[in-house]
TrEMBL record:
GO terms for cellular component: mitochondrial inner membrane; mitochondrial small ribosomal subunit. This is Small ribosomal subunit protein uS5m. Residues 190-254 form the S5 DRBM domain. Component of the mitochondrial ribosome small subunit (28S) which comprises a 12S rRNA and about 30 distinct proteins. Its main location: mitochondrion. The lineage of its organism: Eukaryota, Metazoa, Ecdysozoa, Arthropoda, Crustacea. It comes from Scylla paramamosain (Mud crab). InterPro entries: Ribosomal_Su5_D2-typ_SF, Ribosomal_uS5, Ribosomal_uS5_C, Ribosomal_uS5_N, Ribosomal_uS5m_N, Ribsml_uS5_D2-typ_fold_subgr.
Length: 399
């Protein structure tokens, strides 16, 4: 049997020595007291008693078991804001993966099964093969690991050419899908494309420099319905979700001529950005800035020529181009406004005049009723007196 433990009360100096934080085991040994021998003649161990117990704080949690593995790895591999300004860690944060499909065979997996028609013939002679399980292939996993290790370093998986943006794998120019459905209304046939992606920061008193992602995108169904929006969020995924849903709530109807081009040439401006748009025949294509070409694709314009002058800011170009599109005038509106016949000359028709619209009230002004200073050229009238800047060629001289 174990010997009983006796509790001995110490004097105040002994207690102070025993529980002094710097005394340690040596202080406890000095503070030991002799115990009277009981009647059985045996000496029992004494336990120092005190009015207040000794409490030692133990931390059971740390950042090792409080944070996830992804957060810990990010803390090791990430770069500080000061380092980013100096150009460090440009490749940090890029998710790269190996091609896990190499070495895989359709119909053969971890469970070694025979699937007639997939990894085995349906008939073997006159025998109809049934689905059954074969013994497990122990070397299959080892072969796959060896193939994946032989791929060398991790490399980015190549994007499909149709999924690429304006510049390789960058976000501007890439498609991010249709906006999310709102109740029973769905956006079938819509496609959203990113026009601009950048990092914006603002200085706050509490959190310091606050970093967010800003995305400018345009959405449309390719049939004259389109809209654009700007959204900001802390992550790219949240910004993409917000911008395509916001663009789907700001749709505009764009009128098109024969569903392939604009109704007429026009000049539009927003801020210091000027755009000169020309109507082109079918089959001409889109000869314009890449941002305007992306907008035309989601709107449904196939033939167009546009020249940008001034500041080539993507947001200004988008706003200016949409202003020009929604301010177009149909042939009938122009005829009613001028009280004249609208005549078109085409090369396909050998430049013979063709009346495309007449006033609805059938009231046409005569030559005597038209003022001499009135502009009758449709292009100059719609351009508002503006014209594109051209460089004058210096005539060559004979020597």
């Amino acid at each position: 049997m174990a010997a009983p433990v006796r509790l001995v009360c110490l004097s105040l100096p002994a207690r102070q020595l025993c529980f002094h934080p710097t005394a340690g085991l040596r202080g406890l040994a000095v503070a030991a007291v002799s115990v009277r021998k009981p009647s059985d003649g045996q000496q029992h161990p004494a336990l120092c008693g005190a009015s207040s117990p000794l409490v030692q704080a133990i931390r059971h949690t740390s950042f090792f078991n409080r944070l996830t593995a992804e957060q810990l790895w990010k803390g090791v591999t990430s770069v500080s804001n000061a380092g980013k300004k100096q150009g460090r860690g440009k490749g940090v944060g890029k998710k790269i993966a190996k091609d896990l499909n190499r070495g895989q065979v359709i119909g053969i997996g971890r469970e070694n099964m025979v699937w007639p028609g997939l990894n085995a013939p349906v008939l073997r002679g006159r025998e109809l093969i049934q689905q059954h399980q074969l013994p497990k292939d122990e070397e299959r996993e080892a072969k796959l690991i060896k193939i994946r290790d032989s791929q060398g370093k991790f490399r980015m998986l190549k994007l499909d050419p149709l999924e690429r943006g304006w510049s390789g794998t960058k976000m501007p120019g890439r498609s991010i899908g249709a906006p999310n459905a709102i109740g029973e209304d769905s956006f079938e046939g819509f496609d959203t494309k990113v026009l601009e992606l950048k990092v914006v920061t603002c200085m706050t008193a509490v959190f310091g420099r606050k970093r967010r992602m800003s995305i400018f995108a345009v959405t449309g169904n390719g049939n004259g319905l389109a809209g654009f929006a700007l959204s900001k969020a802390t992550t790219v995924q949240d910004a993409i979700r917000k911008v395509k849903n916001r663009a789907g709530q700001k749709l505009l109807h764009i009128q098109r001529y024969n569903d392939h081009t604009v109704f007429h040439d026009f000049f539009t401006q927003y801020g210091a950005t000027k755009i000169y748009v020309k109507k082109m025949p079918e089959g001409y294509g889109l000869v314009c800035h890449r941002a305007i070409r992306t907008i035309c694709e989601v709107v449904g314009i196939k033939d167009l020529h546009a020249k940008v002058e001034g500041i080539c800011n993507v947001q200004n170009m988008t706003k200016a181009f949409f202003l020009g599109l929604i301010n177009q005038k149909t042939h009938q509106q122009l005829a009613n406004e001028k009280k004249l016949h609208l005549v078109e000359f085409r090369k396909e028709q050998l430049n013979f005049p063709k009346v495309v619209a007449s006033p609805e009230d059938s009231v046409v002004r005569t030559r005597a009723e038209i003022p001499q200073e009135e502009e009758l050229d449709l292009t100059r009238y719609l351009m508002g007196g503006s014209c594109t800047a051209t460089t004058q060629e210096v005539p060559s001289t004979l020597h």
